[in-house]
Amino acid sequence: MRRIKQLVISLLFIIYHLLFSIACYNQGPLTPDAWDLTEQQLDSISFYTTHHYTQGYNFVVSKDSLPVLEQQQEMMSVPEILSAEFQAGDVTMPMLSMVDTIILRRHDHLVVADIKTVPADSIDSVWVKVARDQHTFGWVHESDLLANVSPDDPISQFIDFFSDSHLLIFLGICVLVGGAYGLRRLMRKGAKIVHFNDIPSFYPTLLCLLVASSAVLYSSIQLFAPESWRHFYYHPSLNPFVLPWHLGLFITSVWAIVIVAIATIDDVRHRLSLGQVILYLGGLAAVCAVDYVIFSLTTLYYIGYPLLIAYFVFALYRLSLQKSL
Asked: For 99-109, what is each residue's pLDDT tens digit?
């Protein structure tokens, strides 16, 4: 128990100093000429503030296809055509029939070339002009664009993959069923497994607690600071010192998971034989997966907070029993 207390105190000490460093981070002085901007630049800044991207931002098509309305060099832009239609009071004018449709395919890389607003458009007032290359560009509603693309950044695409609600529910069912079956088989064989027949090491328990805490923190950000998470989605960083404190804390927890996972693997391989190591790490991965799914979903309904406290009590109690054996 004394070693456990020392490890917990050390971990809290590290987290305290990380939070202190994040709080004291200074981005530098503001310059007076930063606001000496044109009206177009101010509009771009205003759009960036609310939509988190602007001209020059890079996307990649994530769905099978994305249709956009091609703009010929000699024609008005699509938003200007729509504005003329609405001003004429006839939205059925055949002017849009003169515009060809381009089909962009999965994995095509796009850049935002222009953004225009058509307030009278009842479907979506924001039109975005995207370019695949110098000869392929066209206009699309912002809602259609964002539903079919991801930011051209591997971190954002990773977030997209794990944020899909249908995928999360499917993975949750698979993890719960598969994890329960696997843990039952391991316990019947008398294999070492975290929380139940654990090895005398604090690292596996610490890893599970970190995963559960990170899942709760992730869902809490989704609940209480969705705009900051949306901005992080468009401009991700693995450096906790350049992020707001809550995002910095989340990224710090992710780095802590990586570090503790490495320490866990190293500790386990020194305590068990190769076959036992594979079984133990497989069971540990199943427990962590179950923790992630349960706590990320239950926190969205505020159940995750008391559940996390109960899990901490249970995990530390089970660890103390293993230490006393």
From this structure: 678 899 999 99
